[in-house]
Design brief:
Elements: H1 3-86
Length: 89
């Protein structure tokens, strides 16, 4: 191997090592960007789910209130029916 071949080979090896280092740095940058983006999306998802759960809780509370009111009215009707049935004929 003469000097020009050794220089060409060493330049090629250095270019490969340099490209690998640059590529690793870019991969690290991409990882950081992806982590930030995923964190933001998960934060929005958490907020959305929290709002949905709050809405569902309000609806269930409303249904509980309506059921309590219905049961109160039914008990009142039951009492009235008993009074009517207990009247002498």
């Amino acid at each position: 191997m003469n000097d020009s071949q050794i220089i060409a080979l060493s330049i090629t090896v250095l270019a490969i090592i340099g490209a690998t280092l640059v590529n690793n740095a870019r991969i690290g940058d991409v990882k950081e960007v992806l982590r930030a983006e995923m964190g933001a999306r998960f934060a929005r998802l958490d907020l959305s789910l929290e709002l949905r759960f709050h809405s569902m809780e309000n609806r269930f509370n409303s249904m509980d209130h309506k059921l309590d009111e219905f049961l109160r009215v039914m008990a009142d009707h039951d009492q009235r029916i008993r009074v009517v049935e207990q009247r002498p004929r």
